[in-house]
Specification:
single chain; about 100 residues; alpha+beta; five-stranded antiparallel sheet; two-stranded antiparallel sheet; 7 strands
Length: about 100
């Protein structure tokens, strides 16, 4: 798995797998640091630490990844927002082009 570090050792990019399940658009996992990263349809991305490799495999192989994520990860682990707009924030380009 490729990983590149940004300015902080906390910020990294994992190889993401494209997925289209509910609001999930991509998922990735860093087994060494046990961090799951998910990207949602609005472009926001979150990281969850303390994710076991077994839980990662269950998410990745789930037939209903969105439901699995919501029930077993989103509700059980603290999220760290790593990209995307804050909830309720307005995109400045919406004034020019309208909301997407």
């Amino acid at each position: 798995m490729t990983k590149s570090y940004g300015e902080s050792l906390q910020e990294f990019i994992v190889e993401m797998i494209t997925i289209n399940s509910g609001k999930l658009r991509a998922i990735g996992y860093d087994g060494r640091d046990r961090i799951l990263q998910v990207q949602l349809e609005d472009g926001s991305a979150f990281q969850y630490s303390g994710i076991s490799e077994a839980l990662w495999h269950r998410l990745r192989n789930s037939g209903a990844a969105w439901s699995f994520y919501r029930d077993n990860i989103e509700e059980e682990f603290a999220a760290k927002r790593v990209s995307g707009k804050a909830p309720g924030s307005k995109n400045p380009l919406d004034d020019l082009f309208g909301p997407s």
